[in-house]
Amino acid sequence: MSVGIYGGFGRSNLHVYRTTRPLNIIYFDGQSATLTALGTLDSQISILQGRVPLYPDYDLIYDEDQRALDLCELVKKLGIDGVVRMDAGFEVLVCDYHASRLQPLFVTNITVPGNMEEDPEGLPRDPNRQPPRGFGNVFSEQGSYEWLRSASWHYGREGGLAENRVQLDICRMVSFYDPELTSLAKSHHGRLVGNYSFVNGWGFRKGHRLLDIQPDDVNRVRSWLQTITSSTTSKENRCSGINWQAIFTTIHAQHGTRAREIGAAFEWKSGTEAERKAIITKVHELTHAILAPYLEYIVSDSDKSLTPREQTIARCSTVYTAGMDLTTLGRSEVLLYHSLNIVTERLCTWEWDLFEWSEKHTTNYWGDQPGDAKISAWLNDEEVARYRQLSEDTLSLIGWDLWTKCDRQCMFDEICAIPTWPVVYAPGLPQGGIYSAHPPKLSEDEMLDFWRPKCINRADFDRGGGRGRDPIHQFPDVPPY
Prior knowledge:
Layout: H1 2-6, E1 13-18, E2 25-27, H2 42-49, H3 58-62, H4 64-78, E3 82-86, E4 90-94, E5 103-109, H5 140-154, H6 215-229, H7 244-265, H8 273-291, H9 308-318, H10 331-360, H11 375-378, H12 381-398, E6 415-417, H13 444-451, E7 454-456, H14 458-463
Parallel strand pairs: 2-3
Antiparallel strand pairs: 1-5, 3-4, 6-7
């Protein structure tokens, strides 16, 4: 990332350090190092400035030097070492190298010969770019592509190991979705400036903002940060030792891949009896596969007060939390506990409704006789459409982004690139300031295509100016050797 940004022009020295002890840092989730006015910086702006303006000043978005100073003031108050954020890859801001005991290894002058001057002659200029005004050496475009390749390593792609140098302590987490932040209770959805819209898989939420956060809630978040970074073992700062990440990963694996396959089945044609039968059969098989560990066609004696529906949903939605003692959980863990139960109950209820509906049209074990032979008489396209909509609503609410794999094995000269920068669909942006550059208007199909991971090579990357960059912000071509 450093080479990709600063190695393409001017004089550049790369400083390399190593850690000598574990660093205590806080992670701002999401693309919190992406410089946009669309919400990527909201968490930092709210904590540092106390409010999030709808139309922020240019410097509030792009002055990373000042933001680094402000973040380091926060780091000093918290008594920790720094901050980690994400753009295409991950970056760590360490505020005091001496106190954090970072050891310098070497400094390399990576300046490309012939590019010593700040504005070398003979290279093309793009007046629409911010400084350095669209010039660079012969490796400028390559640097951006290699930055993306490096990021892919740290996603666990391209033969790399998924980022594990930063070990998240999920027990000590602050969430702006916390119900105690009452000023945000009804304002997470939408609130994008202009006519922006984002598309990603099943409608994964990208438009949630903190524009309405009030001073009391900002102070509450600051207090929570102080608590989770302290070394005390108070009730608010304790942890049970439960591996929450393992539980979430298990639930995602158990429900996610089947849910995606169910969603894909509902996209099949349903105009004929054979087509409807194929959909209903696939839905029946997949929902049974999910619910089989919890399903009794005849409820056991111990649960005679429950219907098969009630028993199955209860077992499915509480299997990972039924044995937990809430009194042993830390404050952040209680939020995780309730979030987990809400999500699994919604998923298990949806899966049961699909199973019960498809069972009537297939095995019909709860009916008098198998209904398969009469499927055309009472299964119509409107009925399929109703359960298709139910599935779309559920998957959109859950918001799981399963689009993290390319549809094919990439070739040796390609990268399985996951979209990393926001793409704007905004025909009516306000004029002036940071909104003065109008990105090209994209069709819905183009938006969907962008948000899908795909195999790209260097030529694909350069043609688009880099993933997520509109043409007026891409590096210009440089003269050939």
